[in-house]
Write a structure and sequence with these properties.
Helix content: 25-40%
Structural class: alpha/beta
Strand content: 25-35%
CATH architecture: 3-Layer(aba) Sandwich
Protein name: AB hydrolase-1 domain-containing protein
Number of helices: 7
CATH superfamily: Alpha/Beta hydrolase fold, catalytic domain
Number of strands: 11
Distance between the termini: 45 Å
Strand order of the largest sheet: 5-6-7-9-8-10-11
Pfam family, one: Abhydrolase_6
Number of domains: 1
Organism: Geodia barretti (Barrett's horny sponge)
CATH class: Alpha Beta
Shape: globular
Largest sheet: 7 strands, mixed
Length: 268
């Protein structure tokens, strides 16, 4: 038993199924669940579990101390994972959801304090109906940073997360100290088209998104096995929310190139 009502079953193929039944007294409404993948040379898959709510829970292992909590920004909840120490860095995940705490998180957390939110609707917390575009989500995260009073932060955005970061910078580049965008969406390419996430399987989209999977750390441990029903459902939920935010125009903002022209002096 991991926590009240929560159990984990290890399958013969190495996959894990988590099941949860709400306590009758209503004391727990849900859980944040984070899988920490084994590093090279390790054999242990660590499962971090914390009750949803306003109280943060800290988990410690031989790697980074992790703090999982739900914070509220203007009445909208967001699951936030924090780890490391040093100058703060905001990490924004891509359109298929948050993959978990990986080895590069541990490396960066040696001298940075990482803030890793799971976008509302992409994980343990429901979507916010008022967030109906990527620009809305960017405004939400800008307010989160202001209310946390962290000062200018670094930001790393992956794909959809890169688009969110670009929208944030276009609105107020002063909130960032440095910006790193990894294969960002948000701009329509001068040649060709943006790959359509919604006409292929999530697996095909992932395979097409990585130039050389064999040279990409942890790709095999994340996606090397046949997907479980739970993984399929998580991907489909993320794709549905991505469609709601970025369906038309598809995965780009026609005004963003002009808006980004006003960004000055931000190291990228």
């Amino acid at each position: 038993m991991l926590a009240p009502g929560l159990t984990a079953t290890l399958n013969s193929d190495g996959s894990i199924i988590l099941t949860w039944s709400a306590p009758d007294d209503g004391s727990v409404t849900g859980y944040h669940v984070l899988l920490r993948r084994p590093k090279e040379g390790e054999e242990t898959l660590i499962i971090y579990v914390s009750e949803m709510g306003n109280t943060a829970t800290t988990y410690t292992d031989t790697g980074t101390d992790l703090n999982a909590s739900t914070i509220h920004v203007g009445g909208t909840g967001v699951a936030l994972l924090r780890g490391g120490s040093g100058r703060p860095v905001l990490v924004l995940h891509e359109e298929l959801g948050h993959p978990g705490w990986l080895s590069w998180h541990d490396d960066l957390a040696q001298d940075h304090s990482l803030l890793v939110p799971v976008h509302p609707g992409f994980g343990p917390l429901p979507r916010a109906d008022w967030i109906s575009s990527v620009r809305d989500l960017a405004g939400f995260y800008s307010r989160m940073l202001r209310e946390m009073a962290l000062g200018p932060v670094g930001v790393i955005g992956f794909s959809l997360g890169g688009w969110i970061a670009a929208e944030m910078a276009a609105a107020n580049s002063g909130q960032f100290r440095r910006m790193v965008l990894v294969a960002p969406t948000g701009l329509r390419p001068g040649e060709g088209e943006i790959m359509d996430l919604f006409v292929v399987t999530a697996r095909a989209y992932l395979d097409a998104s990585v130039h050389d999977a064999s040279a990409t750390p942890e790709f095999a441990s994340l996606y090397g096995r046949e997907e479980t029903p739970e993984q399929f459902e998580a991907w489909e939920d993320a794709r549905a929310e991505s469609a709601r935010l970025a369906w038309k125009p598809y995965m780009h903002n026609p005004s963003l190139p002009s808006l980004l022209q006003g960004v000055q002096g931000l190291p990228t």
